[in-house]
Amino acid sequence: MSMQSESYWHLDKRIPLAMIAAIIIQTVGVTWWAATLTERVDDLRAQVTQLQGFAADRYTQTEASRDWRRADGEINEITKRLRSLEMQIIELKHREDK
Fold first, then answer.
1. How many CA atoms lie within 13 A of 16 on its CB side?
2. What distance in Å separates the CA atoms of residue 30 and residue 17, rounded to the nearest whole number?
3. What digits encode the pLDDT tens for the residues 50-69?
4. Measured distance CA(62)–CA(48) in Å, rounded
5. Residue 57: which region, alpha, beta or left (left: phi > 0; alpha: psi -120 to 50)?
6. pTM of the model
7. Residue 52 needs a FRET pair 20 to 30 A away by CA distance; which of 17, 45, 69, 79 works?
8. Cα–Cα separations (whole angstroms), residue 95 to 10, 13, 85, 87, 98
9. Which H or E run includes 4?
10. Short-list 44, 40, 64, 41, CA closest to 52
11. For 13-38, what is each residue's pLDDT tens digit?
Protein backbone atom coordinates (compact mmCIF):
# COMPACT_ATOMS: atom_id res chain seq x y z
CA MET A 1 0.00 0.00 0.00
CA SER A 2 1.15 3.40 -0.80
CA MET A 3 1.28 6.35 1.56
CA GLN A 4 -1.42 8.15 -0.36
CA SER A 5 -4.08 5.44 0.08
CA GLU A 6 -3.48 5.22 3.86
CA SER A 7 -3.75 8.95 4.56
CA TYR A 8 -7.26 9.48 3.14
CA TRP A 9 -10.44 8.24 4.77
CA HIS A 10 -12.95 6.69 2.41
CA LEU A 11 -16.24 4.86 2.54
CA ASP A 12 -16.08 1.29 1.43
CA LYS A 13 -18.52 0.32 -1.32
CA ARG A 14 -19.45 -2.79 0.65
CA ILE A 15 -21.41 -0.71 3.23
CA PRO A 16 -25.06 -0.86 2.15
CA LEU A 17 -27.07 2.31 1.66
CA ALA A 18 -29.74 0.89 4.00
CA MET A 19 -27.23 0.93 6.88
CA ILE A 20 -26.25 4.52 6.13
CA ALA A 21 -29.93 5.49 5.97
CA ALA A 22 -30.62 3.66 9.25
CA ILE A 23 -27.80 5.50 11.02
CA ILE A 24 -29.04 8.86 9.70
CA ILE A 25 -32.63 8.07 10.75
CA GLN A 26 -31.43 7.00 14.21
CA THR A 27 -29.42 10.20 14.57
CA VAL A 28 -32.43 12.32 13.59
CA GLY A 29 -34.64 10.29 15.95
CA VAL A 30 -32.28 10.73 18.91
CA THR A 31 -32.01 14.46 18.21
CA TRP A 32 -35.79 14.78 18.03
CA TRP A 33 -36.20 12.76 21.25
CA ALA A 34 -33.66 14.98 23.05
CA ALA A 35 -35.45 18.13 21.87
CA THR A 36 -38.79 16.73 23.06
CA LEU A 37 -37.25 15.75 26.38
CA THR A 38 -35.84 19.25 26.84
CA GLU A 39 -39.27 20.72 26.12
CA ARG A 40 -40.90 18.42 28.67
CA VAL A 41 -38.29 19.32 31.29
CA ASP A 42 -38.96 23.02 30.68
CA ASP A 43 -42.71 22.44 31.03
CA LEU A 44 -42.21 20.52 34.28
CA ARG A 45 -39.89 23.21 35.59
CA ALA A 46 -42.59 25.83 34.92
CA GLN A 47 -45.18 23.67 36.70
CA VAL A 48 -42.92 23.25 39.73
CA THR A 49 -42.38 27.01 39.86
CA GLN A 50 -46.14 27.55 39.69
CA LEU A 51 -46.76 25.01 42.44
CA GLN A 52 -44.13 26.64 44.62
CA GLY A 53 -45.99 29.91 44.15
CA PHE A 54 -49.22 28.25 45.26
CA ALA A 55 -47.46 26.79 48.29
CA ALA A 56 -46.18 30.26 49.20
CA ASP A 57 -49.72 31.65 48.87
CA ARG A 58 -51.10 28.92 51.09
CA TYR A 59 -48.43 29.64 53.66
CA THR A 60 -49.28 33.32 53.52
CA GLN A 61 -52.99 32.58 53.92
CA THR A 62 -52.26 30.32 56.87
CA GLU A 63 -50.08 32.98 58.40
CA ALA A 64 -52.74 35.63 57.82
CA SER A 65 -55.42 33.43 59.38
CA ARG A 66 -53.26 32.79 62.45
CA ASP A 67 -52.43 36.49 62.77
CA TRP A 68 -56.11 37.40 62.39
CA ARG A 69 -57.08 35.08 65.24
CA ARG A 70 -54.28 36.45 67.42
CA ALA A 71 -55.26 40.07 66.68
CA ASP A 72 -58.94 39.28 67.29
CA GLY A 73 -58.05 37.83 70.71
CA GLU A 74 -55.99 40.88 71.58
CA ILE A 75 -58.79 43.22 70.48
CA ASN A 76 -61.25 41.34 72.68
CA GLU A 77 -58.85 41.63 75.62
CA ILE A 78 -58.42 45.39 75.04
CA THR A 79 -62.19 45.80 74.76
CA LYS A 80 -62.66 44.08 78.11
CA ARG A 81 -60.07 46.37 79.71
CA LEU A 82 -61.74 49.47 78.25
CA ARG A 83 -65.12 48.40 79.61
CA SER A 84 -63.55 47.82 82.99
CA LEU A 85 -61.96 51.28 82.90
CA GLU A 86 -65.28 52.84 81.84
CA MET A 87 -67.00 51.18 84.78
CA GLN A 88 -64.29 52.47 87.15
CA ILE A 89 -64.67 56.01 85.73
CA ILE A 90 -68.44 55.86 86.16
CA GLU A 91 -67.99 54.61 89.73
CA LEU A 92 -65.55 57.44 90.50
CA LYS A 93 -67.97 60.03 89.09
CA HIS A 94 -70.76 58.65 91.31
CA ARG A 95 -68.50 58.90 94.35
CA GLU A 96 -67.59 62.45 93.44
CA ASP A 97 -71.24 63.45 93.08
CA LYS A 98 -72.09 62.27 96.57
1. 3
2. 20
3. 888 877 777 778 888 899 99
4. 21
5. alpha
6. 0.41
7. 69
8. 119, 123, 15, 12, 5
9. helix 3-7
10. 44
11. 788 888 889 999 999 999 999 999 99
